[in-house]
Amino acid sequence: MSNVLGASAAPVRRPSMILTIARKELREIFRDGRFFWTAAIMFVLLVSALVVGAHRYATYNTMQSHAQEVSDGQFYTQGDKNPHSGAHYGNYAFREAGPLSFFDNGVDPYTGSFIFMEAHKQNPARAVQAGDTSALTRFGDLNGAMILQVLMPLLIIFLGFSAFAGERERGTLRQLLSIGVPRGRLLWGKALGIGAAVALVIAPCIILGAVAITLLDITPSGDAFGARIGLLAASYAAYAVIFLFLTLAVSAVASSPRTALIALVGFWAFSAFIMPKAASEIAKFVTPTPALGEFDARLQETRAKGLGGPPPRARLAQYRQSLLDEYGVEDVADLPVYWVALSMQRLEEMDHEFYDYYYKGLDNSYLEQRRLQDMLGVLAPTLPLTSISMGLSGTDLLHQRDFVNAAEATRREMVTKVNGYLAEMAASFNANLRADATTDIESNDRVLIADEEVFRMVEPVRYSPPSFAAVMREYLWAFLILALWVLAAIAIARVAVARISLQSR
Amino acid sequence: MLEARELRKVYNGYEALKGLDISVAAGEIYCLLGANGAGKTTTINLFLNFIDPTSGSAKVDGLSVVDHPIETKQRLAYIPETVMLYGSLSGFENLSYFSKLGGHNEYSRADLLGFLDRVGLQSEAAHKRVSTYSKGMRQKVGVAIALAKKAKALLLDEPTSGLDPRASNEFSELLRQFQSDGAAILMATHDLFRAKETGTRIGIMRGGALVREMATNEVSHADIERIYLEHMQ
Amino acid sequence: MYALLLGHETKILVRAPAFSWILLLLAAAVAIGAWAGGTHLARIERGAAYATQDALADREKLRSDLEGYEQRMAARGESVQIAAYSHSQRGAVPQGTNAGSVGLKAPEIAVLPATGIQAFAVGQSDLLLSYVPVTTAGLTTALQASEMGNPVDLKRGPFDLSFVVIFLLPIFILAISYDMLSSEKERGTLAMVLANPLSLSKLMSSKLVSRALIILTVIVALGLGSLVTVGSALGSADTWTRFGLWLASTLLYAVFWFLLSVLVNALGRNSATNGIILAGAWLAFVVVTPTLVSVWATTAYPAPSRFDFITASRAAQTESEGNFMRELDQYYYDHVEYVPSERVNDFLSVTRAKNEAVDRAVAPLWAQFRTQLVKQDELVARFQFLSPAIMMQRVLNDVTGVSAARYQRFVDQVQTFREEWTSYFTRRFLTEQAMRSSDFNTFPSFRYVEEPIGAVMKRALPSIAGIVVILVVLAAGAFAALRRYQVAAR
Q1: In chain B, what residues touch C8 (CB-CB under 8 Å)?
Q2: Concatenated DSSP letters for C417-481?
Q3: pTM of the full structure
Q4: Which residue among A41, C302, C398, C444 sits deepest, i.e. has the most Cβ atoms within 10 Å of its Cβ?
């Protein structure tokens, strides 16, 4: 092995030459006053972002668990009443903040944070936090993810734009190549040097973040918490590598440092600011989704007319007839089961079809939109990274959808159990009522009143985040595109450095 | 016409010019010799008011360049080591722009082409973009600009360095035309031979001070070289 | 002389291929912005139209049933009865006769109409619903709803004209001006030029003016183009005043970035350093400062917890039920169709009393949302002067009509209207007056009363004045720095 290496043309062993170049780059960077200031600003911002994020996370989850506790209490101790009234009274599901939301709060401020679970109706998640803040929040949020996605690439560009262009302008590049430094090693040496400088700024923050996780006593929710964090770190590292090598590539081909700088800053603005918004608009154009008014109108129309088959009213009549036939009676009042409860359940089940059709359809449209945006990531590496970051931090659409589904499952279970209980119990109750003809309308005895204990049969909402595997599946394309960017950036940099022209134009 | 009195320039504690006294009369070609960093370019920049003097004064036609920056520049023309022009404009367009900047709106197209012709720029080259020009062609346009400006004083900063001998010779010829028109010329140069051939007087600078002045007709080529090297020891 | 300088600068600019590209990109960005804003506006207007249409169809159904019933009764010579309140439309006497029922079931959709140039900005209109269904029931639930949209899009924000103006326009301006003086110095032409009788500040100002004139003209043209394509109510003075304010503030904002570039160029650094300083300034003004001020505002005056709001209103509901309702009523409340007809009016009165008790109980919390938002806004108003981008956002939201202030005005008017609506139906309901089909033309109808344009100007004034002051300071600083400019490097 060493023979092979020794036999190669390199007069000096490879790693040491790369290290020498890297050390020289680092020394230059450190001696430049600009590095200190940029790094200091970035460090302060990153630390404050993590502190703000941790504070928000802690406050939010305290509020959330308190509210859930109070609301569950209100539901279970709502007093003795007709079980169906209890289902109308309903319960609330409050969304928990994902464990890594202190780093990347993702879409959380823009999704409803609670859902009212009541009989007959699937409610959308309400209380969008961003609606309770001034319009200024729309400039973007201060969080760790934003700083790494937006500021880190700019730091890399500032540190690296003159790596080759500057040396060529000063003439030192000619000098270097004339003493036989292989271009490939020059590239890796510079990448290592600049990468080390960036890491020196970021690494302390990551350590602080790790300390924060320990101090906050964040209980990992979801499986493979360690893998999620590891992959998150790797994705951001990949993002840094992309910008690092693109910077070196542009620096190698640009006619002057300023041209390199302008081209790179332009690409940065394109990737971090223009494309995310443009991708949203493109996705909305390709897969339009209705505004609330239109969505509601169509949903109500469907509830009245059905989804193409016989209308709900006819289906209910059909069901009624089948029950009458089954029990061989003429009137629903003669059924051994309580018709009102059964019919409510039947209507409820038909509603499930409609709600599933519309809400799942909407969810799918949103996911389709996001997947298209991921694909547009071939134009801008920030796009797949933001998706991956939200996904692994548990603050993406996938996690929100799981929360909504969990709440809806709980709601349906509640309604079904209550209606089932009513259908059974009320039938005998009604029979008694009929036997006792003196019962007065004014009396409470007319309506079945159950002990509040009955609501215990409904489980509180249990939300479990999607599995690591599910997240990986959802973001497979995003991961692939990010990896593609890494390979492409390195390849482009190698070609650019190989073709480097010594003439300063 | 050009006159420096006790001219000093200090950059962050470094004294680039130590009380220079120099004067160039109309019809004179004064050549400043000296090593790199001797203060030649600083002197020219001070006459152009590109930098502020620490003390002393630079005057053009009796006017202080600091107090009368606009008036003195009307009388000056400047040709640097490489005449820098707008690459996206043609030589003709550059000349037209600069002559108007110099306050000469009276020239017709033919006049301007005439200036280019006088400095020896072929007419087909005059309408090409300057980005395609060689250094010699740029210097010619620079001279044409100076001609068009009808300057009373010329400031030249190593205008012939890097030119081939023939171009260099043509340039000297053009300078003599200026001289005969009565212009005062101050030229910084490293070319001892050219200084003796073209100049009327020679000043040798070292470390920001003028160490020797002489008239070219009083010394031979060999003398100049010997004196120069003596001062550089 | 000045005309010569301007002409020369323009010629140089036009011959640079990058310059045409930048103008082209700016035009493309404006076109996309106008298209996206127009599409968004059309979408939310369609939503409001659907809601309105639905409500009107419900109302028309009630009315035509009632009319048929009236004709039948007239034919039979009988008088019109009042139906018992019910969820269902069944029964001999239609629901339309019952004022309590109509007030609940035939909502008036209160719509916040778009201003003439609302397509220029999305603002918060992708979150705050542009319509509220008003019934005799409380507004609490209705006001909790938000506009529907992909949360990822909401997070990323729209590609509207406000984005183009606030974020992209500065980039284009800096791209054509970051090296306007430094590049001439680096190429050596600066010395050639300044060897002529003209001052540096004159040269600099000609560079500024030539670039600014081109960009400002392009902005005016693109702005007018956007107005014509996605604007509405082009005949109204309100639209043109708003557009005028939009244009004026956009031009001032553009001039700010030009002057910043002049200042940085006047410092005499090389082009690459200018690029770094200006890219950093862009980031600081457009991204970091607004974000920091926003975080500060929301941390200093956080909105009260929506969760507390929910649990508190539930507690109030439980209590009011204890006071007003027995379990039986609770059951009927959910399923009014089972309420015996002779008790229905009692029942509805009780329900109303209960609703109002809950509304009263949560009113302080509701008010707190508002005061916290107002305090946040006051803080932002104070610190807006730290960044022209914040000032611009406020002005643009205000003049396009998507500001928080205008929305609040809308909500206030809706609340007043709800009282009018409720009293109209309650009076008839309590006096047991049967509704007639002719009454359907006399329902109170909501019409948003637009604020006078003077009020918009008054709100926008501090921000615009702030930008102007900054412009003056920048210009003074830039031309002062220019006096110390060293044409020759040492």
Answers
A1: 97
A2: HHHHHHHHHHHHHHTTPPP-GGGGGSS------PPPHHHHHHHHHHHHHHHHHHHHHHHHHHHHH
A3: 0.90
A4: C398
